[in-house]
Specification:
By secondary structure, the chain is mainly β. The protein contains 3 helices and 27 strands. The strands form 7 sheets. Strands 3-2-1-27 form a 4-stranded antiparallel beta sheet, with no helix packed on it. β24 and β25 form a beta hairpin. It is globular and about 55 Å long. The chain starts with 5 loop residues before the first helix and ends with a strand.
Length: about 375
């Protein structure tokens, strides 16, 4: 089993149930949707055969507008410079550029290589972006205005014996781009091979930075955990990058570690999976020490927990649906936690008070198809 897909699709029972429940849903993108005033959450939605996108206002109303754009069934989104960039991943392998001001119209769509499975995108400018490609050993440099590749960065030196490094999520701090490199064994069980890394390069020069000057050559940051699966989070309150590692699924061998973006050093695991209660697949930074995380427990259930790195043995369970249904958690601009809950019974966006941990939504906000990835659009 490809455990990268573990969190995307869940169990076969969940997939089958969702397919039956939502097979009759229709895309309503023939009507130009209104653009929400103020900040809003752009939500990719999927029944694992079709995909769409909806928006939820990031205010007290939490008003949803469904099906604002048609996208692939395996997609995530990033916001930059007034545009939404949808990464249509495995089976689609392209970047779709949406303009919220034009009713979420697709203004550009371009390939990043057949079979490449794009995993993330980060930007130096609107005309210069970097796309990590999960099935390849070359990161693409793209001009998102022209919709074409302008260069590439070689990651083959970080690959294991199958020649694929599994470059995954990225975060940019200043001009430094931090890239999670999972290094999984594709020939057997997709478990991590040896060590996993975070590679760092300068977005202006596209040259890798050396995390270990005492060793010959250029070295990436060697993680204490393996398989950095979830999105890395730049915590501007602490100045650290939070990196969730899952190691081998179902085994308490990972956790959260911190990377100093200036010294390119790691703290080691500061919150273990054993303490958290399972594999940490997503993390949210609330302040310098407090955060929330989605945890996959031993019974194949997902939980939303709260934690404090200054007292890491104290864990609060904020939400336990009793199923494998929580996929993404993000902090809104006003400090609330939005969570995508794709339970077959009542899917939607749940919202939590980041200070108290209490759920604000009496029932999830309906976004049409079950929600997957959440990205906040600001500055409207």
């Amino acid at each position: 089993m490809n455990y990268r897909s573990h969190y995307r699709v869940g169990s076969a029972l969940v997939v089958a149930a969702l397919a039956m429940l939502f097979a009759a849903c229709e895309d309503s993108t023939s009507v130009i949707p209104p653009v929400p005033a103020g900040n809003f959450a752009f939500v990719t939605t999927t029944d694992y055969s079709t995909g769409s996108a909806s928006v939820v206002s990031a205010d007290s109303l939490l008003k949803a507008t469904q099906n604002v754009a048609s996208i692939s069934s395996d997609a995530l989104a990033r916001f930059y410079g007034g545009r939404i960039y949808v990464l249509n991943r495995s089976g689609a392998d392209n970047v779709q550029v949406l303009d919220p001001a034009a009713g979420f119209a697709t203004i550009k769509q371009f390939t990043v290589g057949a079979g490449s499975d794009p995993e993330d995108i980060t930007f130096l400018s609107r005309s210069r972006a970097f796309v990590s490609r999960y099935n390849e050993d070359q990161m693409w440099i793209v001009d998102t205005i022209q919709g074409r590749r302008t260069g590439q960065i070689d990651f083959h030196w970080l690959a294991d014996a199958d020649n694929i490094p599994e470059m995954s999520h990225m975060v940019m701090v200043g001009y430094r781009v931090f890239v999670a490199v999972q290094r999984l064994d594709r020939t057997t069980n997709w478990g991590p091979v040896g060590t996993s890394y975070v590679a760092v390069f300068d977005a202006r020069t596209e040259q890798f930075l050396d995390a270990d000057p005492a060793t010959g050559g250029v070295q990436p940051i060697t993680l204490a955990g393996t398989n950095p699966f979830g999105e890395m989070v730049w915590n501007d309150a602490s100045g650290m990058i939070w990196v969730p590692t899952v190691g081998r699924w179902g085994i308490a061998d990972g956790g959260i570690e911190l990377i100093d973006p200036n010294t390119l050093t790691t703290s080691g695991i500061v919150l273990s999976e054993a303490t958290a209660g399972g594999d940490i697949s997503d993390v949210v930074a609330i302040d310098a020490n407090r955060g929330a995380a989605i945890v996959n427990d031993a019974n194949f259930n997902t939980l939303l927990i709260g934690f404090d790195l200054s007292a890491p043995t104290s864990i609060d369970t904020l939400y336990a649906p009793g199923t494998y249904s929580l996929q993404d958690a993000e902090l809104s601009p006003d400090g609330r936690i939005f969570v995508s809950d794709h339970t077959p019974v009542l899917p939607g966006i749940r919202v939590f008070n980041a200070t108290t941990g209490a759920q604000i939504t009496a029932k999830p906000v309906d976004v049409g198809l079950p929600p997957a990835d959440i990205e906040f659009v600001t500055g409207n």
